[in-house]
Automatic annotation (TrEMBL):
N(1)-(5-phospho-beta-D-ribosyl)glycinamide binds at residues 21-22, 81, 284, 352, 359-360. Its EC number is 6.3.1.21. This is Formate-dependent phosphoribosylglycinamide formyltransferase. The gene is purT. It comes from Sulfurimonas paralvinellae. GO terms for molecular function: ATP binding; magnesium ion binding; phosphoribosylglycinamide formyltransferase 2 activity; phosphoribosylglycinamide formyltransferase activity. Pathway: Purine metabolism; IMP biosynthesis via de novo pathway; N(2)-formyl-N(1)-(5-phospho-D-ribosyl)glycinamide from N(1)-(5-phospho-D-ribosyl)glycinamide (formate route): step 1/1. Homodimer. Keywords: ATP-binding, Ligase, Magnesium, Metal-binding, Nucleotide-binding, Purine biosynthesis, Transferase. One of its GO terms (cellular component) is cytosol. Mg(2+) binds at residues 265, 277.
Amino acid sequence: MRFSAPLKSNSKKIMLLGSGELGKEVIIEAQRLGLETIAVDRYADAPAHQVAHRSHVVNMQDKDALLEIIYREKPDYILPEIEALSIDALFEAEDKGYNVIPNANAVSKTMNRKNIRTFAAETLGLKTGPYEFVTTEEGLRETSKRMGYPCVIKPVMSSSGHGQSICRSEDEVAHSWEIAKEARGDASELIVEAFVDFDYEITMLTARNGKETVFCEPIGHEQRDGDYVFSWQPMQMSEAAKKNAQDIAKAITDGLGGQGIFGVELFVKGDEVYFSEVSPRPHDTGMVTLITQSQSEFALHLRAVLGLPLGFTFYGDGASAAFKSEVHNYAPVVDVDDSLFSENSFVRVFGKPEAHKGRRLAVALVFDKVEAALEKARELITKVKDA
Ligand SMILES: Nc1ncnc2c1ncn2[C@@H]1O[C@H](COP(=O)(O)OP(=O)(O)OP(=O)(O)O)[C@@H](O)[C@H]1O
Ligand SMILES: NCC(=O)N[C@@H]1O[C@H](COP(=O)([O-])[O-])[C@@H](O)[C@H]1O
Ligand SMILES: [Mg+2]
């Protein structure tokens, strides 16, 4: 492949829609290949804005505003990085010949739980837990009663646990209904899922470059309030469970199509694997690959997008721990103990311009045998603080 320089008339341009910590790493990888990079988000000075050649602040849920910036910049590749985007803008851009990664239809399906769940379970026949959709509080009450408690209630469009709750009894239904309004996206419809009593859950990072599909080692993770706090790689799985997980990941990514990396979220009980959801882009739990793989999930995403070979080396086990702010601060300071800067650990500070309670500001990464790495990650993250 021929690589041009950025900021020239013949440059190859990528435009990132969403410019958080995951996008920041994607931009860094793109620049390593000489691409011209444009980062877009809804607020100024987002992490990827800080490393891109150009940045824009746009209401990305506004179709006209999003299209205006796409037509102005004329990117070769459009990489959605968050879910809350105007899907109509992406369909229109794709119709006009723009290359939306992995494709507008896949973005549309995955941004809405109803679309992806019905596609996975009803079109592809993949195993999932029981689910139903509701639009009213009364509907929620009836459905959760039928489904049984506990059940998991989520807005059809949201992310990182926003608007999500576990409802443990009929008394909690009204509260779950209220929480759902905090959705980042669309709370007009909710999914009610039976609680899957899994042994563990994984992300199966799956990359497609138009010629082949490759899997990373399974990533185990721990979630709190619907958001990830620790991840580790590899997750020890039985051969049968791993094969089932790869088969599901292959089926759903083939079903969605296009090029790029996907984070396939799966629940595992014994050898049984249940599909949960999928991100058509790098996954937060996959930040662990920054320390475990010769090509991180971000580098693999770029390779897949460009149609480059997907070979990489798994260096060895590791773990990651998310640091979330405890305070609101317009000039956040992340206080990292020097012990994090060791021969087998390091930290990535995202540089978010504003902190609020629960906002992820940094990640600690440890390279060691899984159990030791996880134990160390748990310990080290207590040494990261708001200052
Ligand atoms: N039906 C379920 N049964 C048991 N646990 C569940 C269920 N649904 C979700 N969870 C738990 O909540 C977590 C977050 O759920 P989910 O991935 O659907 O939400 P999300 O907001 O899209 O998260 P993210 O954007 O971080 O991936 C899951 O990883 C899992 O730990
Ligand atoms: N689970 C999805 C996920 O991790 N997305 C990552 O978080 C950013 C938003 O962070 P913010 O909420 O702090 O703005 C997104 O831009 C993306 O990088
Ligand atoms: Mg998830």
